[in-house]
Write a structure and sequence with these properties.
Number of domains: 1
Strand content: 25-35%
CATH superfamily: Spore Coat Polysaccharide Biosynthesis Protein SpsA, Chain A
Helix content: 25-40%
Number of helices: 10
Largest sheet: 5 strands, mixed, barrel
Shape: globular
Length: 283
């Protein structure tokens, strides 16, 4: 089998309102909330870079200009701190800006994650691409040299050349908050998907294996999204489109190595802050 081409592009759906963090998110995008001294969205872009992806697409909405500003030069600030010890605090974001190309598109209506991904089709074209949801902050395993979740998915794509999604086991009572998969385990922690259900009640969930915000998607997903009717909450669900894709093509789900923090919740946000302060932050 011919080697799959390197994945170059990564989409970041970032048009949501972040209502669970009001009033903090009334005027600030939830993706810009800081984990210690770095915004959530930057952690995600750095994870994409680690997986070899440098063409970054943001699907934004009204009130999200701060994201574009973050990945741009701030002449006044940089002039003010030039030559001081504070200038080194910009090293990480400068490396990101120097390494990546950024494209921004607006999702004019909040019609679900599937619709947000479909909005990014002009950026992606006919290439396999990744999707990161910045709310799901993924840390690398602490006991190995393994990279973060997206790089693990990209490695599987290189091997199988099909769509790959990240999963983790969640408490049965929490299935109504996730897309849930069922499938056949073809290798340790790797499942060939045969069914997906969006936010099932615990009594209706086929398993407790939940999809989290890391995807590698082949471009044929766009055709399935265009044919997907609104589902749960009247939104176009990526889960419904992937379910249809899995009936015709191989779709894999992998229990990635590392730790995931649900930074869409206040509890997960605080947990992530404590973790990164203790393990990664130094003066």
């Amino acid at each position: 089998m011919a080697k799959a081409p390197t994945i170059r592009k990564c989409l970041f759906p970032a048009a949501g309102y972040g209502t669970r963090f009001l009033p903090a998110t009334k005027a600030m995008p939830k993706e810009m909330l800081p984990i210690v001294n770095k915004p959530l969205i930057q952690y995600g872009v750095e994870e994409a870079m680690e997986a070899g992806m440098t063409q970054i697409g943001f699907i934004t909405g009204r009130g999200k200009r701060a994201i574009a500003d973050h990945f741009d030069t701030s002449f006044e600030l940089e002039h003010q701190i030039f030559g001081t010890s504070k200038e080194s605090h910009l090293d990480d974001i400068r490396q990101v800006m120097d390494s990546c190309d950024f494209v921004f598109m607006r999702q004019r209506e909040m019609l679900g994650l599937g619709h947000a991904i479909l909005t990014g089709e002009p950026m992606i074209g006919a290439e396999t691409f990744a999707v990161i949801l910045a709310d799901d902050l993924c840390a690398a395993p602490t006991d190995s040299d393994e990279k973060r979740a997206l790089a693990q998915l990209a490695e599987l794509y290189e091997r199988y050349q099909c769509s790959v999604i990240a999963i983790e086991e969640v408490p049965k009572e929490d299935t109504a908050s996730y897309g849930i998969i069922s499938g056949d385990e073809i290798a340790p922690g790797i499942y060939q998907v045969n069914d997906m259900v969006e936010k099932p009640k615990p009594e209706d969930a086929p398993t407790n294996m939940a999809i989290i915000g890391r995807y590698i998607l082949t471009p044929e997903i766009f055709g399935y999204l265009k044919q997907t009717a609104p589902g749960a909450n009247g939104e176009v669900q990526i889960t419904d489109a992937l379910k249809q894709l899995a009936q015709n093509r191989q779709v894999l789900a992998v229990k990635f190595k590392g730790q995931r923090f649900d930074c869409g919740s206040i509890e997960g946000f605080v947990e992530a802050t404590n973790y990164y302060y203790e393990n990664h932050y130094s003066d």
